[in-house]
Amino acid sequence: MLSISRTLALPESELVERFLRADGPGGQHVNRTESAVELRFDVVRSPSLPEAVRERLLARRDRRLTDDGVLVLQGRRFRDQGRNRDDVRERLVEIIRGCLAAPKKRVVTKPSRASRERRLAGKAQRSRIKQGRGKPGSFE
């Protein structure tokens, strides 16, 4: 079980891990060991996710999310397969935790009178500066 919060946990059966060869440093065994990890989690078909969390995950517009609703994470930061596996799982937990709480609704406000006046005063000052940049003798 992959624990997300006190009330939410993902069973191991919902996570699909694939091990592949990582690029980068690795010494003599770099071309023989499969230290990189690709973790796939089917967001659309997961029975463990609450519907609200599923909708927030799918609405994220994340490039790691496929058209079928599968979240694909790759871990190749470390030379060790176990550390890459733990890293990818931690990132999955953080992504799901970020979608647990509903985002706050924005309260529409109007700019204050003083802020409007400051904005207009700044625009007038900028206008005077730019008017002073004309050719010499072109004052009217």
From TrEMBL:
Disordered as annotated region, ranges: 106-140
GO MF, one annotated term: peptidyl-tRNA hydrolase activity
SUPFAM superfamilies: Peptidyl-tRNA hydrolase domain-like
InterPro entries tied to this protein: Pep_chain_release_fac_I
Tagged with keyword Hydrolase: yes
Enzyme class: hydrolase
Enzyme Commission number, as recorded: 3.1.1.29
Domain Prokaryotic-type class I peptide chain release factors stretches: 21-37
PROSITE patterns: RF_PROK_I (PS00745)
Keywords: Hydrolase
Stated name of the protein: Aminoacyl-tRNA hydrolase
Species, as recorded: Dyella lutea
